[in-house]
Amino acid sequence: MLAEFKKTLARDRTRMTINGFSPLGLVEMTRKRTRESLAHILCEPCPTCQGRGEVKTPQTVCYEILREILREARQFNAREYRILASQQVIDLFLDEESQSLAQLGDFIAKPISLQVESEYTQESYDIILM
Ligand SMILES: [Zn+2]
Question: What is d(CA 90, CA 1) in angstroms, rounded to the nearest whole number?
Fold first, then answer.
């Protein structure tokens, strides 16, 4: 790991010397490439998006949860459902999506409760059957 890092720096120095008299554009290009390779060595994929660079919106996660509860309600006979999710997702269920949640609760005729899990990423959730 450290050796790889040193190698990159050495490579970088060489490139900067070679390109020392090049037009500014070329030097900038070299610098950009170096920064990318350093990031590649020093970083790891984002745990929230797994390196995709995008995460599902809280709205999308809300709908996924509602669909999953509907699926589970057809399959199992739970007394009650509890949604464990991030603050952003729970906030949506308490506000803009409160009607969708109430409608689903009426439809399956089971209570659905909410619980914030501060450790959860925006995309992660659990549905507990009680
Ligand atoms: Zn990410």
Answer: 41
Is the CB of residue 129 less than 8 Å from the CB of residue 69? no
Residue 114's DSSP bridge partners are 83
Distance set, CA 30 to CA 92, 97, 114, 124 (Å): 45, 49, 51, 39
CA of 122 to the centre of ligand 1 (A): 11
| Interval between CA 52 and ligand 1 midpoint (Å) | 6
Q: What is the pLDDT of residues 68-106, one digit of tens each?
A: 999 999 999 999 999 999 999 999 999 999 999 999 999
The helix-helix angle for 2-18 and 24-42 (nearest 10°) equals 180
Tens digits of residue pLDDT in 4-56: 655 555 555 544 444 455 555 655 555 566 666 777 788 888 888 888 889 99
Per-residue pLDDT at 17? 46
Q: How far is the CA of 96 from the centre of ligand 1 (A)?
A: 25
How far is the centre of ligand 1, averaged over its atoms, from the C-alpha of 107 (Å)? 36
Helix axes 98-108, 58-75, angle to 10 degrees: 0
